[in-house]
Amino acid sequence: MTIEEFGRRLRAREITSADIVEQCLDRIHTENPRLNAFIHVMGDEARQRARQADEELAAGRDRGPLHGVPLSVKDLIDIRGVPTTAASRVREGHIAERDAPAIAHLVEAGAVFIGKTNLHEFAFGTTNEDSAYGPSHNPHDRARSPGGSSGGSAASVAAGMALATIGTDTGGSVRIPAAACGIVGLKPSLGEISTAGVVPLSHTFDHVGPLTQTVADAALTYHALLGDPAAAVPAPMPVAGVRLAVPRPYFCDLLDDEVRERFEEALERLRAMGVRIDDIEIPHAADVAPIYLHIQLADASAYHAATLEAMPERYTEAVRLRLEMGRYVLAEDYVRALAGRDALVREVDAALAQHDALVLPSLAIPAPLIGATTVQIAGTSQPVRNVMLRLTQLFNVTGHPAISIPAGLTQRGLPCGVQLVGRRGQTDALLRVALASEALIRG
Amino acid sequence: MTVEAWLRAAIADAEERRLPELKPLLEALAKATTALRQSSVTGLPSSVSGYQSSVGGHQSLETGRQS
Question: What ipTM was reported for this prediction?
Answer without folding.
Answer: 0.93
